[in-house]
Give the backbone structure.
Amino acid sequence: MPIVHIYVWKGFSNEAKKKIIIGITKVFTEINIPEKAVEIVIHEIPMENWGIGGKQASEKEEFKNAKYHEYII
């Protein structure tokens, strides 16, 4: 059974998490893996614990007001 780990910044809405779970499960069912066999774990990481380009994500100007959960379709 596949176990998928997803790492996101803290603050994803419950609705965004549901969409992630549904979407990833769909990918596996399309290759004939039973839906009930797919497990997904979402890890929420605070931005200060996530490094990008030698800096904390929380300190990078382009991410200061990031709301990436809004981009989940």
